[in-house]
Write a structure and sequence with these properties.
328 residues; alpha+beta; 11 helices; 40% helix; 22% strand; two-stranded antiparallel ribbon; binds 3,4-dihydroxyphenylalanine; seven-stranded mixed β-sheet; single chain; 2 domains; BirA Bifunctional Protein, domain 2
Length: 328
């Protein structure tokens, strides 16, 4: 005959296997249900002699209590492990891995950038990736024969032998578009993807993101340009970051500068900037005698690479989860 010990052992083994409420309920029915050993034995009691009946009844009661106790305990353990997963705090640290996705590092830097500019009162303006030759080049003081067009390796789309539209080479095309449709004063940033006919290497990709900035008003100065850029760069990279201007040339700004930032002891180029050329203001229908403005444009991937210490920009847009998972 089955001993009480055997039953308890079998019960414990079954409970170890039972990993959810349903499984525990099944164990309960196996050991306490109608067809269980206990129920069977209890049904036999009335046929026994009085002494034996008293003795057997007592034993069965004890066994039944033990079974009920073990099942209740197993259920409580299951519930508490669901609420508080058991952790061995003596184990070495483990990087927390989210079982679901997280924001892409480039998107995260973009979001932070939008927030900092918005706090300064800039509006974030949407734009299109296909631009006309006029807005991308001519309106920015770069006629068809202007050598400055060589600064950007363009994917040209020729329509009947004539330039018409192109995948924009920079977000600066939005400058004159926005000026035409809005009266100063205004402060905007225009984030977006741009395209260059470029051979890829660790610092160049053929489709990347820029953030264009445009501020027009009365008495807007170069000092304000520098103060704004310093504030934003420090907002993204931290207060120890610094910026510097190097003299440069863009047909749409005068004077023009190259913007570098210093982060962790290294100077890195971030983009271009300058005071808006009066010709550009005029093309946008704004009186350059009354208004001045500054503009800038920088690479969104560049600042993400600087912030996260990446040495190959191309990694950012490769679907390589081992790489992206580092940025949880
Ligand atoms: N459009 C330039 C580029 O793609 C960056 C730039 C320079 C934007 C000067 C500006 C600016 O608005 O004023 O390299």
């Amino acid at each position: 005959m089955t001993s009480q010990n055997d039953i308890i052992k079998a019960l414990e083994a079954d409970l170890v296997q039972a990993s959810n409420e349903h499984a525990i309920a099944q164990v309960k029915s196996k050991y306490l249900g109608n067809n269980s050993f206990i129920s069977e034995q209890l049904r036999l009691l009335p046929g026994l002699a009085p002494e034996e009946k008293a003795q057997k009844g007592k034993e069965l009661n004890i066994l039944k209590n033990q079974i009920e106790h073990a099942i209740t305990e197993a259920r409580e353990q299951l519930l508490s492990s669901q609420q508080f997963p058991i952790k061995d705090i003596s184990l070495p640290g483990q990087r927390f891995k989210q079982p679901y996705g997280h924001m892409h590092p480039a998107s995260r830097v973009l979001q932070e950038t939008y927030k900092i500019f918005s706090d300064l009162g800039f509006a974030v303006v949407d734009s299109g990736e296909i631009e006309t030759d006029w807005y991308n080049f001519e309106a920015l003081n770069m006629p068809e024969t202007h050598p400055a067009r060589e600064m950007q390796d363009t994917f040209y789309i020729k329509n009947n032998g004539k330039l018409d539209v192109l995948p924009r080479t920079h977000t600066s095309g939005m400058q004159v578009r926005f000026m035409e449709a809005n009266k100063p004063p205004f402060k905007i940033i225009v984030p977006g993807r741009v395209f260059r006919n470029e051979d890829e290497d660790v610092t160049h990709i053929w489709a990347f993101h820029q953030i264009e900035g445009l501020v027009v008003g009365e008495g807007v100065s170069m000092a304000q340009l520098k103060g704004t850029l310093l504030h934003v760069v420090q907002g993204i990279l931290g207060p120890e970051a610094d910026i510097r201007f190097r003299p440069s040339y863009f047909p749409y700004t005068e004077p023009s500068v190259e913007l570098d930032c210093r982060y962790k002891g290294q100077w890195l180029e971030l983009g271009g900037a300058g005071m808006i050329n009066p010709v550009v203001l005029q093309n946008g229908g704004i009186d350059p005698e009354k208004y001045t403005g500054f503009a800038f444009g920088w690479g969104a991937e560049r600042i993400a690479a600087i912030k996260y210490g990446l040495d190959d920009l191309r990694e950012l847009w490769r679907p390589r989860f081992e790489f992206l998972e580092q940025f949880v």
